[in-house]
């Protein structure tokens, strides 16, 4: 398990530094390959980061932004991660980026996951940058400790790219990238803020079952060091 630590006094300082690193990685990928893929998380933590990143001078027209996970709700819903990205990231300079979401208006998340997997499969992999969040229950992406498909989602040898997930702690059905898609990424960041999450992460890193604190699966299987950005 390789970890690189980046500590900041405030969320604003973290957002500025992380946005610069992401922009540099995306620009490098565009120079090398003519395109870049950035997968971001939702929830509440990334707002300042998205705002800072949207101002960066990247060749955004060559960048595809996608989601690490999504709540199975339409983009008009206040809990939609797609909505968060459109509101705070895909504007100003970053407005030129292409967006490939995970949500689609299927009747059930199982059907939506198949369509989302086809869209993810059409993107170049490994992704250049993956930004993860973490909940105080130790979930990351939609790998919830009580998730009905958790074992399949964190199977490092699994072939699925996107899975539906039902979990009591999740609020609504979810769609999530699977561990292999995350673990193979070129630059993996875990972005956490606050004392509670700092303590949860310390507990996760003491070791134990991946199913108990699924963030452990990322540290155990990432193919590059995981960069932990903490404020
Ligand atoms: O439900 C989710 O939660 C995590 C953490 O969210 P936060 O509000 O505590 O920042 C997030 O990483 C994930 O993308 C989201 O769907």
From TrEMBL:
Gene3D superfamilies: 3.40.50.1360. Pfam families: Glucosamine_iso. GO terms for molecular function: 6-phosphogluconolactonase activity. The keyword Hydrolase applies. Its EC number is 3.1.1.31. It comes from the Bacteria. It is an enzyme of class 3 (hydrolase). Keywords: Hydrolase. InterPro entries: 6-phosphogluconolactonase_DevB, 6PGL, Glc/Gal-6P_isomerase, NagB/RpiA_transferase-like. It catalyses: 6-phospho-D-glucono-1,5-lactone + H2O = 6-phospho-D-gluconate + H(+). GO terms for biological process: carbohydrate metabolic process; pentose-phosphate shunt. Hydrolysis of 6-phosphogluconolactone to 6-phosphogluconate. NCBIfam families: pgl (TIGR01198). This is 6-phosphogluconolactonase. It comes from Paramesorhizobium deserti.
């Amino acid at each position: 398990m390789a970890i690189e630590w980046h500590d900041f006094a405030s969320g604003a300082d973290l957002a500025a530094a992380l946005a610069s690193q992401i922009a540099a990685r995306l620009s490098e990928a565009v120079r090398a390959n003519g395109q870049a893929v950035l997968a971001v998380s939702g929830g509440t933590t990334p707002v300042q980061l998205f705002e800072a990143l949207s101002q960066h001078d990247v060749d955004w027209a060559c960048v595809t932004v996608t989601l690490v996970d999504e709540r199975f709700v339409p983009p008009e819903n206040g809990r939609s991660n797609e909505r968060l990205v459109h509101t705070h990231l895909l504007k100003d300079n970053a407005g030129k980026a292409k967006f490939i979401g995970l949500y689609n208006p299927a009747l059930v998340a199982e059907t939506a996951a198949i369509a989302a997997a086809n869209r993810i499969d059409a993107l170049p992999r490994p992704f250049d940058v993956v930004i993860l969040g973490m909940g105080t229950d130790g979930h990351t992406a939609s790998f919830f400790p009580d998730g009905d498909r958790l074992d399949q989602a964190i199977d490092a040898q699994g072939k699925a790219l996107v899975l539906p997930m039902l979990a009591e702690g999740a609020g609504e059905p979810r769609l999530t990238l699977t561990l292999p898609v995350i673990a193979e990424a070129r630059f993996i960041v875990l972005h956490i803020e606050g004392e509670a999450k700092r303590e949860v992460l310390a507990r996760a890193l003491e070791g134990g079952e991946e199913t108990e604190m699924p963030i452990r699966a990322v540290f155990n299987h990432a193919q590059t060091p995981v960069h932990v950005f903490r404020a």
